[in-house]
Specification:
- With 521 residues, this protein is α+β, with helices and mostly antiparallel strands.
- It contains 22 helices and eight strands.
- Helices cover 45% and strands 12% of the residues.
- The strands form two sheets. It has a five-stranded mixed barrel. A three-stranded mixed beta sheet has the order 1-3-2.
- A hairpin with a 2-residue loop joins strand 2 and strand 3.
- Helix 3 packs across helix 12, helix 8 crosses helix 9 and helix 13 runs antiparallel to helix 14.
- The chain is globular.
């Protein structure tokens, strides 16, 4: 029953009100989840707001570039700067958060050089040392600009607020006016010559519209440190929380799993006895959660978890079908469990799939009539007839991996390229690197596994292909033009492992790979 009026930010200010921005960060939920996991699994209580401020493991991890999952630090550019910087304090993270944006980022190299002792620390005026000492004389924050205007150009606090608005909102007319006031103020207030005053003003220009104030940078930098601390000190629990937060984003989950493997954390397929709904930590490894399996409802997953909680571990496939009552355990969901690896402890995937009708019949009859003597399986009281599975060829490695990719979004128990691992030790370029900052149009070589191939005819009636190729780091669409296709027409089939020579190309914001030559691994 309340009346709400809506105003834009400028009208609010003119009315004498303050405008607040409230930012919701998923990283806060990840932190809370990670802290809860550590408490539950290890019995360790972590006060996230009172962490040790100079944790060596945290800064060493950031210096190595292990930044995936760390708030504000995970981009390729930021990671490379951190590896040069070798941060040793939270202030360094505050600085990187503030500078890593258009304009101010030109100051990053200078900050790194001064911090590491390869450049001299200087100040354009002695008064600037009192507020720039912590950043080695480099302008970093919006506050630095305001203090310079007050200390060097003689602004009052009231005047400097107009200056702040002009810089922050990039208002050209106001900036031109402030330019004159600032340069004249520097000469009048400190005796600085006009040339030096102009030089000082030029340092301000990159900050127009992009300068972070200290409070904002410190809030972000602190969150960066908290996430980095948890990853460095409790990597399994933290990365499980990061994976859970990624939800159904298959590309993001694949990237996080790759990082887990790189830092020595095993990521295992789901398991009906060990997996909870979300990603689960088991003996310093991470298991996929039951909710992560495609074509598999959360209701069935919850029934499996409840059966475990009520009666202990599920012993075998007979016990599983007897104790999980969910009516949604149909052919599609049981197939998903088998193919995703969640029933590996009860039988080989190929054999279980070959017997799926038998399994479904057993489950259906047990749920419908546990004492029906006329049923295919005879049940007496609580006794149960064990299922005898018919022999069948086991699934091949390629089949298992293909099913994992289909149902979990990525290869978990291996990778199709594993059989060629030794041959690929000298392969430098990865698909992830190429999609990142590798120059477009430059010849390079990538290796990968063809996941999919789509054929089309050109206007001239010739056949060309669009293929999806994946390596250990990422996947990309590759274009095979008719001339290249004629050289090796039988090579580009799904399931083939290949070396491709060509170049990365950008079109409409999407990166693809143009194939010039190819050969099989």
């Amino acid at each position: 029953g309340k009346i709400i009026r809506q105003y834009d930010s400028q009208a609010v200010e003119e009315a004498g009100l303050l405008k607040f921005d409230f930012l919701g960060r998923p990283n806060l939920s990840i932190l809370a989840d990670a802290v809860a996991r550590v408490r539950h699994r290890l019995g360790i209580e972590i006060d996230i707001d009172r962490l040790p401020q100079r944790d060596e493991k945290t800064f060493e991890m950031l210096s190595r570039g292990e930044t995936l999952g760390v708030f504000q630090m995970a981009s390729i550019g930021m990671t490379s700067y951190l590896m040069k910087l070798k941060p040793t304090r939270i202030d360094d993270l505050n600085v990187m958060v503030a500078l890593y944006r258009p304009g101010p980022m030109n100051n990053i190299d200078e900050y790194i050089a001064r911090k590491n002792g390869s450049a001299r620390i200087t100040y354009l005026h002695p008064k600037m040392e009192s507020y720039l000492a912590k950043t080695f004389g480099v302008l970093v924050y919006q506050d630095d600009l305001l203090m310079t205007a007050i200390e060097i150009a003689g602004y009052t606090w009231g005047e400097v607020d107009k200056f702040r608005k002009a810089v922050g909102k990039k208002i050209p007319e106001e900036m031109a006016k402030q330019h004159l006031i600032f340069v004249e103020g520097c000469q009048k207030h400190t005796g600085m010559n006009a040339q030096m005053a102009e030089k000082l003003w030029e340092l301000f220009e990159p900050f127009q519209g992009y300068g972070f104030n200290k409070a904002h940078a410190a809030s972000y930098g602190n969150l960066s440190y908290q996430t980095a601390y948890m990853k460095a000190n409790f990597p399994v629990d933290y990365m499980a929380a990061v994976l859970t937060a990624a939800g159904g984003d298959v590309d993001e989950i694949a990237q996080i799993v790759t990082e887990c493997k790189r830092i020595g954390i095993k990521v295992l397929p789901p398991d009906v006895n060990e997996s909870n709904g979300t990603f689960t930590v088991v003996d310093d490894a991470i298991r996929f959660g039951l909710y992560s399996i495609k074509n598999f409802g959360t209701g069935v997953a919850d029934s499996i978890i409840k059966a475990r909680e009520d009666g202990g571990a599920l012993v075998d496939i007979t016990d599983f079908l007897t104790r999980v009552p969910d009516k949604n355990l149909n052919k599609k969901s049981l197939e998903s469990l088998i193919k995703g690896g969640a029933l590996d402890a009860f039988g080989e995937r190929g054999i279980l799939l070959a017997n799926i009708e038998l399994l479904l019949t057993y489950h259906r009859e047990h749920q419908k009539a546990p004492t029906d003597q006329g049923a295919l399986f005879a049940f007496e009281g609580n006794a149960r007839a064990s299922i005898q599975l018919a022999d069948s060829p086991p699934a091949t490695l390629l089949e298992r991996l293909t099913w994992e990719k289909e149902l979990l979004g990525l290869y978990v128990s291996g990778h199709p390229l594993d059989v060629h691992k030794e041959k690929l030790t000298k392969q430098k370029m990865t698909i992830k690197q190429g999609k990142g900052d590798f120059p477009r149009g430059v010849d390079t070589v990538i290796a990968g596994y063809i996941e999919d191939a789509r054929s089309i005819l050109t206007k001239g009636g010739e056949r060309m292909l669009f293929i999806r190729i994946a390596d250990y780091t990422d996947s990309i669409e590759a274009v095979v033009f008719p001339r290249t296709l004629k050289q090796t027409p039988d090579l580009f089939t799904p399931g083939a492992c290949v070396l491709l020579k060509g170049r990365f190309s950008e079109r409409n914001g999407d990166t693809s790979f143009v194939v010039e030559k190819a050969k099989g691994l």
